[in-house]
Amino acid sequence: MSSTSLLQRLRELSAVDCDTLDSEALFELMKNGHDGTKVHEKLINESIRDAHWMLSQQPDSTLEELAVEFMMVRLALEMIPSLSGYSHIQTNPRWSYNSQKTIKNAERIVSIFKHLAPSYDTKRVCIKIPATWEGLQACRQLEKRGIATLATTLFSMEQAALAADANCTYLAPYIDENKSFILCGLAQRYCRSIKARTQVLPASLTSIDDVLVLAGVDHFTISPPLLTELAATHVQDYKGEIGSVLKAAESAHVKGKGEYEVILRDESAWRLAFTRSEGGKSEGKIIQAINIFYSMQEELEAIVRRFGTTT
């Protein structure tokens, strides 16, 4: 009788997709081939060409911004054969504190998908937006317009409660070095307790141990190397814990929606609660995350300039 792999076991407990983009996009676009040229030189040049075409329709945007968006969408389209769910694309971090700019940016990304792949169902596009007050209000409006959103850079229950209230498709607690495992369990319990449609999707998983302690959360996007390791490891050979975070969250206190209601309707109250979360650590983490994403955006725009803005 064949034995069960960790990946098979995980798929019994959670929905699992392949995560091939996110922050790796920068490094992918910077790769050089054996001849010293960029591996994605054709993709970059075509994106700059299309950005010139779109610039006349988007006078408040720059050529570099538009070219980066075309590059991101083209990379996402290359990954479609590996995906069963959404294509996730993040908005420009410049607009992390501007709802209207974020909405326009998100709608433009969807329009780029339509332009480059007319037959692709844009209902499968999910826009990743930083979980600031402004970002989550943008999510609220985008969801009303039929565009799926994911609240990213999420480090606190204050953000999770607002993301659920905004009707985000997903909220994504960051794991990485922060190891915010319990937040995933608490956020999922909260969303289910208020019957929100928002699902928990942990971000920045760095090992199969990170994945497996979270088994049972709504949804995972997992990098190809971790998927390979999960598929190659048998359940009976794994000595770690599977699903321990959700079990621990079951006994932890979770505030109800009524306890969050005041801050969900009052921007200044929400901002203060977020500032106070974890003694200021949660707000510090989102500031750091937005800075990292902003630096990546600048490097991607620098690639466009190096290829020339007069293509």
UniProtKB/TrEMBL annotation:
Keywords: Pentose shunt, Schiff base, Transferase. Its EC number is 2.2.1.2. This is Transaldolase. The lineage of its organism: Eukaryota, Fungi, Dikarya, Ascomycota, Pezizomycotina. Transmembrane segments: none annotated. Gene3D superfamilies: Aldolase class I (3.20.20.70). One of its GO terms (biological process) is pentose-phosphate shunt, non-oxidative branch. It comes from the Eukaryota. Pathway: Carbohydrate degradation; pentose phosphate pathway; D-glyceraldehyde 3-phosphate and beta-D-fructose 6-phosphate from D-ribose 5-phosphate and D-xylulose 5-phosphate (non-oxidative stage): step 2/3. It catalyses: D-sedoheptulose 7-phosphate + D-glyceraldehyde 3-phosphate = D-erythrose 4-phosphate + beta-D-fructose 6-phosphate.
